[in-house]
Amino acid sequence: MNIADIMTVIGFVVVSLIVLILLAISIYIYFVDRTQRQHPVLRNYPVVGRARYFFEKIGPELRQYFFNNDRESKPISREEYGHIVKKAKYKRDVEGFGSQRDFEKEGYYIRNSMFPMLTEELKMDREAKVTTNRYLLTKDPLFTQREEHLEEENSPVYLLDEDDTIVIGENCQDPFRVRGQIGMSAMSYGSLGERAITALSEGLGIAKGTWMNTGEGGLSDYHLKGGGDIIMQIGPGMFGLRDKEGNFNWDELKEKSKIPQLKAFEVKLGQGAKTRGGHVDAEKVNEEIARIRMVEPFTSIDSPNRFPEFSDLPSLFDFIEQVREHSGKPVGMKVVVGSHFEAEDLAKGIRDTGKGPDFITIDGSEGGTGASYQELTDSVGLPIKSALPLVDNALKKHGVRDRVKIIASGKLYSPDQVAIALAMGADLVNIARAFMITVGCIQTLECHSNGCPVGVATTDPDLQKALVVDEKKHRTANYLISMRKGLYRVAAAAGLESPLHFKREHVIYKDEKGKTWSLDDIYQSMIQPGGEGSMNA
């Protein structure tokens, strides 16, 4: 028997074995499907019925990549995702052939000036520069991997001029001084893995002039790695600032306050996407996370939807005063606004008591989260563009706006959206999901499962191997620098020397029929004496 015959026999045997194995597996699956009681489809159509569940499972990916157009997918469309990635990866944000926006729909527009500011007329820090790595795309073929290479680029970081520094907690022992109007919203270690937190921390540190909010999971070494400014969030579970019984630990607060990077505290009353308390599944709570949060390892963590320490504004303000006195740092509060009544009560309380927060973070209902419930994410609380003017109006009406800074958050991940939020009354803006995208998020919507395939929203060490900190930190820095640059570009187009000067008069609202109003027209009645009833406008 020659070699060819031997190979033919071997091939026949191998193929026969494969066929027999597949047949045996199919027979086994057939009887399993036919006898199970859970799925009627499988009982009637064993084996082949599994195709239904396979396609159902990959449905989100099919829609994301094949069937949804560039502006349909949620929560962040393919077009929006692409803009974020281009800023982070290539430090570019140029479009060709015009906008894809549907100009027939209602929406907000920034009023341009007939005489925009020249670049040299803009008031900003021209000395501060940093070097980051960005990709240069050289070829983008259809069937093979695109060709691109890294290059170092030294660029300005587009910080506010030193004279325009935003001061939070001016009367505090240790005020917080900020020269960039965009920072990272609350994202906890535990919700994100250590590599994601480290990459974000180091990237923000490279970009300078910004801040990182720890989220309610406590302050970790990974938040501190980049050397940037930190806002430590205090949630109802008081993670990282509690004793063994779960009570607030004032001694631990004092110890944390000694960390130079820690610039402020934020008392979290609510979050746009989950007005309930937070939840972390047991598989995410490894021993390190348990130590930082001061809880038991490998047990699910649920924080209540309200602090047991206070139940009304006076007791909340007393708690804020105590935190400020013990720490010497500014103290803010994070809220979801439900109506103008709440905004009014808050502003009146600040006026009447002389107490209250140094800053208010307003989180719109469109905000993101690692895990929450559909009924809360979809229908509880107002979106940021409705909530923000209500609080700004109320604070102005009661004469306390100059005491309180406003931070806005809720899908504000492009320079024009940030500019509109600033015009609506924000001093600063928080961003979360766009920063997640800079370190690799691809929107698989698996944040709650600890199965994030790109190693971002997971503590699984094997999955985290996908995330290379030294590469992703530059993407975070590039995105933030590009956002600031774009914000200055929009300000120049509006005839402003700095984005610090955006006001309501600089934004126009257009309805579907083409009729326009300035924000100043829409909201002016809200701050007139006796105009409380018009706040629903």
Automatic annotation (TrEMBL):
Entries under PANTHER family matching the protein: ARCHAEAL-TYPE GLUTAMATE SYNTHASE [NADPH]
Family (UniProt): Belongs to the glutamate synthase family.
Organism expressing this protein natively: Lentibacillus amyloliquefaciens
Protein name per UniProt: Glutamate synthase domain-containing protein
A GO biological-process term: glutamate biosynthetic process
Keywords: Membrane, Transmembrane, Transmembrane helix
UniProt domain Glutamate synthase: residue ranges: 147-496
Residues annotated as transmembrane: 6-31
